[in-house]
């Protein structure tokens, strides 16, 4: 099976990366092991700016995607920078796939109102995520190797062609994905986008769809852990009211439980 190297330019605090989660998770289900994803921490904000613009962007991303958001964080002791969280993802990468930890940080920034710019807060999220050696993680948070890995990510984000840069920034717009084919070609999709665009780019780069049916809601929750209603709808192909209806049916049977967060819920198996 051919494996397509995929570089995902993102940041734990990026609202539009949070908005892309339903699409990215469906892509992961549909292509399975045919995509090998490397998360490039692009450093959205060395220092966060105007709180009002961050609130507006979070609300817009939530409205566009259906993902739950709670932007009150930006008025209640807002984090100063997204760089520490990016470094923490690189530290998690030292122990394997950082995706579960990155997901937990996304939830923290976008709907759990966590101030994730200090070592102790980032260590606590690692503890909650599970699967990480916490002593090693604490050491890696300040290791030269991890700082250099983050620096390399920043350089990679800056090296993307300038026509794909975010307005007023010297780096690629977030989120962006590049699919690298075996012949050296690159199929890039830059900025928040649809499933169809990412699907087409992955296929053009040579990725092969896994021959599987859409999962049941319980299967999806078992595979991904916490999921928003919009993610269940996307991954399980349950449009309109079908996803919430099935989720609440499972809740009445004590097989799934919702956690109310901001404008929506995150669901897990009981």
Could you give a short description of this structure?
The protein has 270 residues and is of the alpha+beta class.
Description:
The protein folds into 2 domains: 4-204, Glutaredoxin (3-Layer(aba) Sandwich), CATH 3.40.30; 217-269, Winged helix-like DNA-binding domain superfamily/Winged helix DNA-binding domain (Arc Repressor Mutant, subunit A, Orthogonal Bundle). The protein contains 12 helices and 7 strands. The protein has helices at residues 15-19, 21-31, 51-65, 83-93, 99-110, 119-129, 134-140, 144-159, 195-204, 217-224, 229-236, 242-252, and strands at 4-10, 35-41, 176-180, 186-190, 227-228, 256-261, 264-269. The strands form 2 sheets. Strands 2-1-3-4 form a 4-stranded mixed beta sheet, with helices on both faces. A 3-stranded antiparallel beta sheet has the order 5-7-6. Helix 2 (21-31) packs parallel to helix 11 (229-236), helix 5 (99-110) packs across helix 6 (119-129) and helix 11 crosses helix 12 (242-252). The longest helix is centred in the middle third of the chain and has 16 residues, at 144-159. The protein is globular.
